[in-house]
Amino acid sequence: MTKVCFLTFYIDYSVGVYILSSILQKAGYDVSNIFFKLPKSATIEWFKDNPNNMEEINRYGDIIGYNVDVNKWTETEVSLLINQINELSPDILCISSRSTHNELVADILPEIKKRCKTTMIAGGMGPTLEPERYLDLVDYVYLGEAENSIIEIILALEKGKSLINENNICYKKNGQIIKNKLRIPDINLLGFQEIPEKCFYIDNNKIYNFENRSEILKTHSYSTFFGRGCISSCSYCSAGQWRSIYKKENINIKKRRNRSIEDIIEELKRAKQENYSFIHFRDEFLCADTKTLNHFFTLYKKEICLPFWAYLVPAQMLENPETLKIAVNAGFVDTEIGFQSGSDRINRAIFSRRISNKTTMEYAKLLSKYNINMKYDFIVFNPAETKDDISITIKLIQSLPKKRSYLSLCRLFYFPVSPIVNILKDYEHIQHSASYYYSISLIYLLSFLLPENELNKILKDEKMVSSHSFLKEKYKSFLKDNKVDFMIGTHNIPDSITTHRYKRILDNKKYKEVIVWANGNYFNELSDIFSNTNIIHLINDDREEIGTMNTNFSSPDILNNVQKPIPIFICSKDKQKVLNIISKDYPDYKGRVYV
Ligand code: B12
Ligand code: SF4
Q: Both 13 and 91 in a single domain?
């Protein structure tokens, strides 16, 4: 049986690769996936001159680097990779890559070529946008989407044929780059992914397999797509480039292609059976006409009802608040909102974004009413932004809803062939230092949290404003003095994963009596879900709260008196800690413990 191995970088799953794997597995091929290096972010001392990835100023004011910039591959890891490839001995090695991996592929692909006997094909966003980078590193480059051609490609190689006559293939002949015709992508094939059991993850100088992957990965969340394609084409993003590659060949792909709803629900039912507790819709925007969305979210609630993350289209939700309501009822709990700049001028002229900040702000306010967790995205390090644009951005940030939200400030990154490269050529003479941009970023963070009068004092203090060190110190001490704790991450927030799961369990199991381990605000925020159940004990292990906030609280020792196997629901920010207390101090407790 022909063996096909996919290789990806700095990611722990890839829907694109899983879809191709699924098509090949169904056709009877022996498929494996190797994830070389896992995603990583870490605080860095200072901005890099030429980072491989975007850099971020996070909600704590620290500079964050990503992936290769903070966790470079090692020789040991390359050896582990080569050994694993040789052990799997694939006939074909399919490399899926992004532009952020240019340095990595230039280093490791020649090693693989030298030490592994296999045919190498590279595809994905990186090779599609810049095939010339890959042509000397692999045997063939594949351009564009591959659902409807992957079998043909593999069949041709199986028969020992060259791929030079195949659609979507790019190769070099006598030093010349030849690009074959592109095939029109087939909408009906979008979809069902299969995660092969032969999955390997290489990081920390170790190799992990599918069974022990939970040692290094979060495995509760399932990622999928409702459809494909972005309805926008921001100048700094490569998404718009995908369609233009096809357009150059007179192939018009629709901006948005959606899967059949039945297909998505079937896929998610399987994910639910496999015990995933959270769904990530990875679509640029989860969008369709309102009727379709209403139908989908209603069915999702009925059949799946797991909390989910998605980008919805702000204007559509504002015009159809009922659809948003249905989405929230179905489990919409978490999202990101892209402002990018507070200045509409910058968004339109530099970032090619048509959405007005007024609309985005209204959307944020609406989501806030529903207690949705929100990350607000802004792009910093933009030479085209004037002092006025910055002042407008500060004002906008001040008026953002603050509940369950935080700012993420991303350093402008120039992806190859993205329009921003040309747009910003006119601003090349503007040379601000990284320290200048960092100071602006810290002012944005201060604007988000500080009351107006305190912020104004800082803005008037020229010495303070001109020094990122002073500003950082000010911000850090504000966070410390006011004990600011950003409630982020769906696990630690009531109303996110826990609320939805518990609601489902209570609906399904119809428990007549339960015990609730109810710590502070965490419990207060989700207490409603127990309204149809008899809570026989409300336990709280925080001694200070007992007798002060709620006299009904019992100490955990009450568990020694409960003889029946009554289920315990843990409602606490420190669920693992509570679980440990129960298993250590009350090992004989017979009831089920829900975490
Ligand atoms: C969802 C998404 C993510 C998700 C999940 C991605 C996933 N792989 O499942 C998350 C959040 C994890 C993510 C992470 C990152 N992302 Co992202 N992401 C996207 C988004 C919105 C959609 C990408 C996608 O999955 N499309 C659908 C799948 C099916 O397509 P695909 O993977 O490309 O695969 C198809 C083809 O390319 C081809 N194919 C792919 N590989 C191969 C290999 C072979 C051999 C063959 C024959 C064919 C083939 O066949 C597949 C099926 O048709 C795009 C924006 C956009 N609209 O493109 C950005 C985008 C791809 N991401 C981008 C970036 C930069 C990143 C990060 C580096 C960010 C970071 N700093 O961490 C990481 C890198 C992750 C990685 N190593 O892949 C950039 C890439 C730019 C570029 N020029 O390369 C994009 C384009 C956004 C942007 N800013 O421009 N991303
Ligand atoms: S909306 Fe997002 S995915 Fe779409 S083009 Fe803009 S940045 Fe890219």
A: yes
81 found inside a domain? yes
The answer for residues whose C-beta is within 8 angstroms of residue 153's C-beta and 6 or more apart is: 121, 142, 146, 163, 166, 169
* Two structure tokens written together for 272: 């639910």
Radius of gyration for the chain, computed over Cα atoms and rounded to the nearest angstrom:
26
d(CA 32, CA 5): 5
Q: Do residue 405 and residue 535 come from a single domain?
A: no
CA diameter of the chain = 84
The residue count of the chain comes to 595
Q: How far is CA 282 from the centre of its chain?
A: 7
Residue that has been written with the tokens 């926008």 in this structure: 232
Q: What is the CATH number of the domain that holds 237?
A: 3.80.30.20
Ligand 1 atom at shortest distance from the alpha carbon of 54: 71
289-315 residue pLDDT tens: 999 999 999 999 999 988 899 999 999
Task: For residue 271, give Cα distances in angstroms to 148, 153, 279.
Answer: 25, 30, 9
Most ligand 2 atoms within 8 A of CB, residue of 232, 285, 352, 360 to mutate: 232
Among protein residues, the one whose CA lies closest to atom 62 of ligand 1: 98
Are the beta carbons of 202 and 29 closer than 8 angstroms? no
25's enclosing H/E stretch is helix 15-26
Mutate to test the pocket of ligand 2, among 99, 129, 230 (most ligand atoms within 8 A of CB): 230
Distance between CA atoms of residues 120 and 114, nearest Å: 12
Q: DSSP per residue over 118-150, as a string?
A: SEEEEESHHHHH-HHHHTTTSSEEE-S--TTTH
pLDDT at 496: 66
Ligand nearest the Cα of residue 195 is 1
The ligand 1 site (C-beta within 6 Å) comprises: 9-11, 14-16, 19-20, 39, 53-54, 66-67, 94-96, 98-100, 121-126, 129, 142, 145-147, 150, 223, 228, 230, 237-239, 242, 282, 284, 415
Residue 543: CB atoms within 10 Å:
10
Any idea which ligand is nearest the CA of 54? 1
Q: Is the CB of 418 under 6 A from ligand 2?
A: no
DSSP output for 433-462: -HHHHHHHHHHHHHHHHS-HHHHHHHHH-H
314 CB near ligand 2 (under 6 Å): no
Report yes or no: 438 and 470 within 8 Å, Cβ to Cβ: no
Q: Does 559 reside within a domain?
A: yes
Is pLDDT at 416 greater than 70 in this prediction? yes
Taking only the tens place, the pLDDT of each residue in 117-150 is 999 999 999 999 999 999 999 999 999 999 999 9
Candidates 391, 380, 486, 487; CA nearest to 59 is 486
Domain that holds residue 142: 3-37+73-200
Residues 291/472, Cβ–Cβ less than 8 Å: no
Q: Is residue 68 part of a domain?
A: no
Pocket mutation for ligand 2, best pick of 54, 225, 233, 237 (most atoms within 8 Å of C-beta) = 237
The predicted-structure confidence for 24-51, as pLDDT tens digits, reads as follows 999 999 999 999 999 999 999 999 999 9
In this structure, which residue's CA is closest to atom 1 in ligand 2?
Answer: 232
Q: What is the pLDDT of residue 547?
A: 40
